[in-house]
């Protein structure tokens, strides 16, 4: 609860998705602290209508206006309209892909907290997004489970005390597949994630490990830690959500059953903790054994390409993100093989090497060029 005791206003962008519906489950238990002020979705009007009836927000927006009910906002601008309202204190950005960027920037410029699930925003806009937060007085608090873990482990200590961040990765459905077998994996194979139920795009990213590359770049921008001090380890059970090693040699981890409810709630209450019963209690014997393996970097080229793009900077992270989004859409449409995703990314990064990335316009141009490159490669 805020200092005045009033419930804080929440906007959810992407309320009909996996993170959006998880957030509403959390908020349904926390009505004394938080009030749903705005909801937006892309095209699922029926579910959005149900959510609006249950939470009575002041603003409802549907990007694809076909199913719009009277009184709803529509078009891509409705994400911004929801984010900058005076009755909104926290924007949960649970949109998938680069489409979430403008709303994140607008909310940060207005001094709001952005509870960020939409990691693509930070990968594409990195420095510009963190600068928008600094200038506008807003703050970015991660929803991604690994970054929530890191935030909780760092617990306010200065970055000079952090020696290394180790992101955990479940390894996805192809953790023990050969590269040849992965080449021909079907959509159903790629969507069969062993530990998390998520939207399709992030599920494919978790199979290719492009998701972990996005998360390395995300960690770099959120915590200001250089790339050479961010590592990845495979942990199939998804119980340890990440590690932070400090300069004195001590390593701190955050643990919990794999559920996004905890990181969503923490992104709303950070640095405080509030009573909640959504996540089953932690039982180490039940969650045993917890195992760790080295990443097979050469068998998951999308991971390697993404981390390299992050290190190179400029427009390369935006190109990586856009090429991956375009390639994943083609894979989900059955137009390219699973192995074609990493090939498309590699080709776009090579073709668009050296594009500038200092301004928003430059990043948008790089994003467009990467999507066009990938579609042309696939003959679309
Ligand atoms: P999802 O596909 O289940 O949901 C996406 C939501 O965004 C939907 O409500 C959809 O209506 C909306 N949307 C899609 N395209 C849009 C567009 N162009 N404009 C406006 N709205 C649009 O995806 P998800 O799994 O909930 O993931 C959302 C974000 O959270 C992604 O960036 C993902 O990487 C991140 N994330 C998800 C999880 C998870 O467990 N699902 C975990 C960590 C991070
Ligand atoms: Mg994650």
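^ structure tokens above, recovered residues below v
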């Amino acid at each position: 609860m805020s200092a005045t005791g009033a419930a804080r206003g929440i906007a959810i962008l992407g309320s009909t998705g996996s993170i959006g519906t998880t957030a509403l489950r959390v908020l349904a238990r926390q009505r004394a602290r938080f009030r749903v002020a705005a909801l937006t979705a892309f095209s699922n009007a029926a579910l959005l209508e149900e959510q609006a009836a249950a939470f009575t927000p002041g603003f409802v927006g549907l990007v694809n206006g076909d199913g719009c009910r009277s009184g709803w906002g529509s078009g891509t601008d409705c994400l911004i309209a929801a984010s900058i309202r005076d009755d909104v204190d926290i924007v949960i950005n649970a949109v998938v892909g680069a489409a979430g960027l403008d709303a994140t920037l607008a909310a940060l410029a207005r001094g709001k907290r952005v509870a960020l699930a939409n990691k693509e925003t930070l990968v594409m806009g990195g420095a510009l997004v963190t600068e928008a937060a600094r200038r506008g007085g807003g703050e970015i608090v991660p929803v991604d489970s690994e970054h929530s873990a890191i935030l909780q482990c760092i617990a306010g200590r200065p970055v000079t005390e952090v020696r290394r961040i180790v992101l955990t990765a479940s390894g996805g459905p192809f953790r023990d597949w050969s590269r040849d077998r992965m080449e021909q994996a079907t959509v159903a194979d790629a969507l069969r994630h062993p530990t998390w139920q998520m939207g399709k795009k992030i599920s494919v990213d978790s199979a290719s490990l492009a998701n972990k590359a996005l998360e390395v770049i995300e960690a770099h921008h959120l915590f200001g830690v250089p790339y050479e001090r961010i590592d990845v380890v495979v942990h199939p059970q998804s119980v340890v959500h990440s590690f932070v090693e400090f300069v004195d040699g001590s390593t701190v981890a955050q643990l919990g059953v794999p559920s996004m409810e905890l990181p969503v709630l923490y992104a709303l209450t950070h640095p405080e903790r509030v009573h909640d019963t959504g996540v089953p209690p932690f039982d180490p014997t039940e969650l045993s054994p917890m195992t760790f393996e080295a990443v097979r970097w050469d068998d998951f080229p999308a991971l390697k390409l993404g981390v390299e793009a992050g290190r190179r900077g400029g427009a390369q992270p935006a190109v990586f993100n856009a090429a991956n989004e375009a390639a994943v859409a083609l894979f989900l449409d059955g137009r390219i093989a699973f192995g074609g995703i990493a090939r498309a990314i590699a080709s776009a990064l090579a073709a668009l090497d050296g594009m500038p990335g200092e301004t928003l316009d430059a990043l948008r141009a790089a994003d467009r060029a990467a999507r066009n490159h990938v579609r042309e490669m696939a003959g679309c």
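The longest helix spans residues 119-136.
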